[in-house]
Amino acid sequence: MKNESSSWSLIKGKDIPTTIELDQVFYEYTFPNCKILDIGCGTGKVSIPLASQGFCVTGVDINPEALQMASSSSVSYECTQSPLFARTDATHLPSPDASFDVAIMQAFLTTIVSKEERARIIREAHRVLKPGAYLYLADFGQTWHSQIYRERYIRDLPMTKEEGSFFAYDEKTGEVAYVAHHFTEKELVFLLIENGFEVEFFKRDTFVTRTGNLINGFVVVAKKS
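RE: above sequence
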């Protein structure tokens, strides 16, 4: 399928799903004043609170409206150092090698419908992380026991060409809003280890989607090897 970046850049900022909360395990891999990169930061749901806790945070996203909302929201927080926000494609991050101590991908890879592009994104995260630094990742897992998702996976497979990928529709217009991908444990782990990381923490979880559905999820911390 084609790159969906252009579709995500056009979604209204308020409509970008932001249902997953940052797992507490994240803080076990941080330290005071560490430099954090929030990849696919959206409206700043993760970036802004972290900056208010004293971390040095840079958030990147392809959606200009979401970034404007993030910048506006950050003003109301009492941050020792305000987060920086930049518009960019995650396959070409505007940062030098070994710039960050931690990178975050919170429900971001689910929006990337190409296996090749996912691999490029992970390699790019690897590039900008310091040696021995960490990638924190939380994302949706395939949920075959749910009739809703089982039917979507099967229905859309002829068009998406990848198991676990399906169309998400705009509730108001009924039109396709974007394509989402749900991972298997094996798929997610090999995506990381084949692109320069070693998994240090892995947890199965249950998340709530933007429409209120319960879904399998994974929380992963991987170390740059």
